[in-house]
Design goal:
Elements lengths: L1 E3 L11 E5 L7 H16 L3 E7 L3 H5 L11 H9 L5 E5 L3 H4 L3 H12 L2 E7 L12 H11 L2 E5 L1 H19 L3 H8 L4 E7 L13 E4 L11 E9 L2 E10 L10 E6 L10 E11 L7 H23 L2
Parallel strand pairs: 1-4, 2-3, 2-5, 3-4, 5-6
Antiparallel strand pairs: 7-8, 7-12, 8-11, 9-10, 9-12, 10-11
Helix pairs in contact: 7-8
This protein binds flavin mononucleotide (FMN) and adenosine-5'-diphosphate.
Amino acid sequence: MKEHKGAYAFESDHHTVVTIGTFDGVHVGHQKIIERLVNTAKAGNLESAILTFFPHPRMVLQKDAGIKLINTIEERKEILAKSGVDHLIIHPFTQQFSRLSAREFVRDILVHKLKAKKVIIGYDHRFGRNRTADINDLREFGREYEFEVEEISKQDVEEVAVSSTKIRQALLDGYVEKANRYLSYPFSLAGTVVKGKGLGKEFEFPTANLEIKEEYKLIPKNGVYVVRSEIDGAEVFGMMNIGTNPTVGGTDKTIETHFLDLDKDLYGKYLSIELLTRIRDEKKFDTVENLKRAMKQDEAFSRQFIRDNYAK
Ligand SMILES: Cc1cc2nc3c(=O)[nH]c(=O)nc-3n(C[C@H](O)[C@H](O)[C@H](O)COP(=O)(O)O)c2cc1C
Ligand SMILES: Nc1ncnc2c1ncn2[C@@H]1O[C@H](COP(=O)(O)OP(=O)(O)O)[C@@H](O)[C@H]1O
């Protein structure tokens, strides 16, 4: 897969089949559409291209600081790279871009830059300034500029929309296994290990504190989770706490992981950590002793879960 920083940077000698969308999560519904894109490309001797926007239109137009996404743009790239698509075009969605008329968008971007011979698009997709054009207008443009339009049915679009919403809601409710089923891969959190309060080592449970730089990344419900990661090329399991550490009087939200059977300085490392299942809610314990006891139970639970599901 070739990545292009915006439609204007796209270069290819071939004609393309293009689909347009955010594809947050790249979940099973998205994967179906991408499969169709890739197969259509093969059958028509075209190259397949996904046109996606970043930042998300809602971040730009509504200054929607609250919008949370399942994938960071880096994660989205990595997952799409495995899908067999020839081109990923990440177009910066700006105020200026949003003012392109429907005709300008079709003519300048789809036809002249991307050389689209086919566009696969949802039945309800709207585009151009103020989102005034619809799929019928696109078909009209297709006759003029000689490309075909293939519609993604209402049912397929709804399936896709529903599963993105369902995945976000499942994560916010702590149901990571449900989210992982919809995604067909484990939801993960990625960031740099930073210094915490320095209490973990006294606890006998040192924890790597993850700092996630993308403020738009969705963080699942507070609580304790069994996790898996890769550190220096080796698979490691662990238990993660997402929360405010109320027992030791914390207030800020932290994401910290104790890795099982590991003794390594992790400061400054960039880790991607998969969430496998949820163990329990975060609690305010009366004493640190009681918290320690709970963490020992978490460890026993985690080891059993790993034996049951990931035994080699
Ligand atoms: C598996 C696990 C479960 C945890 N559960 C709780 C909890 O229920 N309540 C709580 O206040 N803190 C919980 N913590 C957080 C500890 O309070 C935290 O590790 C400790 O404050 C050390 O923080 P530090 O790494 O920033 O020094 C948990 C941590 C881990 C790794
Ligand atoms: N098994 C392990 N799991 C997590 N971190 C570990 C582990 N072994 C060593 N470490 C190191 O210990 C650090 C955490 O220690 P801790 O006392 O909790 O300090 P702080 O909270 O100040 O970051 C981690 O960032 C990592 O560098």
